[in-house]
Amino acid sequence: MKTLIHKRVEQARNGLNEKVVCRVNSGWVVIGDVQFLHGYCVLLADPVVESINDLTPEKQKEYLYEMAVIGDALIEITGCYRVNYGILGNSEPALHAHIFPRYESEESNLKKFPAWFYDWKSAPKFNKSEMQPFSDKLLAYLRTRGVVIDDFNK
What we know:
six-stranded antiparallel beta sheet
């Protein structure tokens, strides 16, 4: 079954996914479609598999490590106080991790809940020019951690 994740990975491979920050060993670092939490990113596994349990133990470690490095970057770049990680795959059964920076400034009625409680439909949409400075900082951080394998000459 082809999912949105399959499509996004194919676009990334072909240089057609404008949300791509870079290629890492386990997949693609992309900026989230919406930015209700500034800096929200997704790690798309490549090759696409249905679940993290479909990876070898070594590839699982690599994927989870790179996911955590992205979280480290968000803490450094955004000043968030915490990072939430979500690997669900229920509606899109292909491995991808949502990486959400969480901020002290969030409304108290939302702050204590997962990011899924935000209004995704009315959230600010990804805008390449607005997100470029963030993308550049994220790429620079990921380079310092040695996880970038292709940055498309950014």
